[in-house]
């Protein structure tokens, strides 16, 4: 370990899966960067639904990843591994990581980092990578979204939902979202959603049909799965695409494949965390070229909900599970 760096750090861990209360601060060794890696002194870490699912015991880290929760961070490069120029030390970055974000120091692959400009607060920078990488890949790469098309997003005020709305509008899409109450619908409309549907009081299938004049949408970004899938397919236009990125409503769906065939629908989905370093590096390059300038210039900013101290990670998880948040929840690691 570099002489000026500590050998130990505070991180958030848990002995066994369970509710938010199992999360607790613990002292662990500071990791050492390997080939192509950076050691980031973490300022902030984003909280995401996969962190909750991991804590519950249902989303184990991929082989070689840190068991510490946390998939996105912002901070300052404290040390570099072989193959990374020494002059990167001291630079501000945000990064998509495979784990380890809820800690004072975290390893990041050089290819999975984005530079944080001077005008961007590190608290905001930490709220971007996981949702930006996920939405860019699934809406624009897997979903083939094109200017002039209409996108339906469930969970419109979640981190993914707010990012999908912002990016969709920035790239010429009409965006429809579903939300759980009128306050969240209003927040979604303020963010730019063309239509916000209160799914507790309205049938989103009928609302989508009415809004699109019976045509339907070209793309659905689905985080629910389960019994939402057949309803989503009713929302799709002919030749539409359905992209699943989470299964919060259950992993199984009953489908009429004759409908898929006759209407030439495409069903796909992905999980980002276990993808290869090479894939994520290519994805980061596409994002840095096409989307990151919008954030660097301040044209887009992440929607943030609340910031909790690192030691209160349990409270942050409890807030996420309660479903009251609008936008991203963030942990402050370095005060």
TrEMBL record:
<dbReference type="InterPro" id="IPR013154">
    <property type="entry name" value="ADH-like_N"/>
</dbReference>
<dbReference type="InterPro" id="IPR036291">
    <property type="entry name" value="NAD(P)-bd_dom_sf"/>
</dbReference>
<dbReference type="InterPro" id="IPR014189">
    <property type="entry name" value="Quinone_OxRdtase_PIG3"/>
</dbReference>
<dbReference type="InterPro" id="IPR013149">
    <property type="entry name" value="ADH-like_C"/>
</dbReference>
<keyword id="KW-0521">NADP</keyword>
<dbReference type="Pfam" id="PF00107">
    <property type="entry name" value="ADH_zinc_N"/>
</dbReference>
<protein>
    <submittedName>
        <fullName>NAD(P)H-quinone oxidoreductase</fullName>
    </submittedName>
</protein>
<dbReference type="GO" id="GO:0070402">
    <property type="term" value="F:NADPH binding"/>
</dbReference>
<keyword id="KW-0560">Oxidoreductase</keyword>
<dbReference type="Pfam" id="PF08240">
    <property type="entry name" value="ADH_N"/>
</dbReference>
<dbReference type="GO" id="GO:0016651">
    <property type="term" value="F:oxidoreductase activity, acting on NAD(P)H"/>
</dbReference>
<dbReference type="InterPro" id="IPR020843">
    <property type="entry name" value="ER"/>
</dbReference>
<feature type="domain" description="Enoyl reductase (ER)">
    <location>
        <begin position="18"/>
        <end position="331"/>
    </location>
</feature>
<feature type="region of interest" description="Disordered">
    <location>
        <begin position="1"/>
        <end position="23"/>
    </location>
</feature>
<dbReference type="InterPro" id="IPR011032">
    <property type="entry name" value="GroES-like_sf"/>
</dbReference>
